[in-house]
Specification:
The protein is mainly beta. About 10% of the residues lie in helices and about 35% in strands. It has a seven-stranded mixed beta sheet with strand order 3-2-4-11-6-9-15. It has a six-stranded antiparallel beta sheet with strand order 1-21-18-23-17-16, covered by helices on one side. The protein has a five-stranded antiparallel beta sheet with strand order 8-7-10-5-12. It starts with a helix and ends in an 11-residue tail after the last strand. It contains five helices and 23 strands.
Length: about 325
Amino acid sequence: MPISQQEMERRIVRYGELKPCRTAFIDAHTPGSNSKENFTIIGGGVSESPDQHVHIKETPGFNIGAAGQPPKCRNSLHSHRTAEVFFVLKGRWRFFWGRWGNAGEVVLEEGDIFNIPTGIFRGFENIGTDYGMIMAILGGDDAGGGVIWAPQVIEDAKDHGLVLGENGKLYDTKKGQALPEGIKPMPLLTDEQLKAFPETPVTAVVRDYVARYWDLMALSRNAPAKVIGENALLRDKPGFEVEFLTRGSIPQDAYSVDRHEVLMVMRGHWRLAWEGGETVLAPGDTCAVPPGLRHSLAPSMTGEASLYRISNTADSAGATWRG
């Protein structure tokens, strides 16, 4: 099925055109977290703010987002009901987890990917020297219905003017906002509820859930490296599959698949051609290729070239994007 140039461009979110939100979450005023930027690229994500711009509202069974942070800025401890996968596009990042963030930590460099185990509190911070960016994949069409915050995060936020309602929306008391009538504050997790969030040892997390960029480069010399999914390098089958492609592992001929395919460029520039047009994808660009579209990929320049390819699976939550 041919697709026009204009239609395909609507399926591409360019890195330089990303629109940030600095009030996306409850820690937006908390010192140390108040300079982060959040982006929703495909799907509504889990933002708690009406100010969040959504680039592509339809979902292929998962959501794509990103977080940009200056040095020493952190994202507070939280959990999700579905999968959360990050890869580092720019910078150097420390990921930490546990009830108080001290159960374990791992440092990720550019290109590294982390399939964070579902059901643990996690946070992350930019420990590099420049503005950093991490790209995120969240399971499900509705990304699990929101964020579960560690109790201290909600309490700290209240001290700085932000209150999260039980409806999942933020209210800024510094702007004179108050909870609407009939809406109560989001309740803190009880000690009994907190027992459901394990203090996962660092060795288990790094061994089973982290893949390093240069290992993936080696593994994908002749064929795409299966990173997440059936018989893949990392544990869990979260409702989507992730593959890593390099210059030597791209299909030699044009191909099509019967699933949604999202291309997220890590390094280099890639020529994407299809019946109806062609374009070039640059680092940080995200492209949603529709099912059944015959297309081809090739690096458009010499040098290092790599990208992540995400596809929905049979257990994806609905795939509302049917086109």
